Amino acid sequence: MLLSLLTNNLKEGIKIVEKGLTKSPVLPVLENIFLKTEDNFLVLKTTNLEIGLIHWILSKNEEKGEICLPSNIFANLIDSIKDEIITLKKEKSNLLIKGKNFEAKIITQETKDFPIIPLPKKTEETLKIKGSLFCNALSQVVQIPSYSSTRPELSGVLLNFQKDKIEIVGTDSFRLAKKTILKENRLLNDYQFIIPQKTAREIINIFSKEEKIIFYLSSENLFLESFFQDIDHSKTLLVSRLIEGEFPDYKDIIPQKFQTKIFLKSEEFLSQIKSANIFTGRENEISFNIKEKEKKMEILTKNDKLGEYKSFINCQIEGSDLKITFNSKFLIDGILNINQPELVFQLTNDEGPAVLKPKESDDYLYILMPVKTF
Questions:
Q1: Domains by residue range for the chain, with CATH
Q2: pTM greater than 0.85
């Protein structure tokens, strides 16, 4: 192996594939970065057996080869280099890294034990979408799932690819978030995948600034790929295992009729909830007294050890009066996820599910259950 490349490109590539590393005393090869020359590229690979990452870097290759390197020392060394261009050369069991005025040797590891990362089949149906659009949508859902050993499907995010739209859904059984993206190109078939929450977070970290990303719609793994802007070649490929199980039928959970609708300024509502949250107890309970005739919503919380808080918001109200209690942290999450100046708080009754949504759109729904009070 002998090649030269831009140091900053290598730094960027390492930061991407580091997300696929894991510490494993049983399989120490999973702590390594796999490097291989391929045409005019240096290819970096990592995997933790749940996520696999492959990243291509333009390079000037003079001799073919492949090696495994301990990720920690390799990443730290490359990050410290100021030279614009560096040379990588394999010499026996070492990788020689040279710049204008430095030279370093890293002991390489065996490549034969590095796991094979599956690649997408070009015959599978694909979907192209703007990276920022998809990642922004995913970020509105990704923190909702919670780990469950008995119901692993609640630990992941559902990607529901339909012919003309994508629905991204997450739930922890106490609340549910659904984001809908309309697509320009129609699919021939519908597909559903449950991806691990960690995979969803890494998709946001890696692909949010990409102009175009492509999903390969396989029933075996999730394949997501980005491309160079100026050349027709893969840039980064993420491969993730899928979570087995049947996701809850969320369409039956979303209420269609409401007893009361409250129209609110998001910033004012969030500020009042955060203030009231200071006085909540273990269950983070905040009570609301909705007065339709007075066009006012009272916010109350009381803690025997800390004190109490009471405020009100003047707002437009449709429907009937209602007293109801919610978990304050769940409310804060919903308001922040909506990220719009105005929202609608829709209530079925004092025991049924409520919906937070943007005032001007139905593309994001945040459903939460009230807290029972005795």
A1: 2-107 (3.10.150.10), 126-251 (3.10.150.10), 256-368 (3.10.150.10)
A2: yes
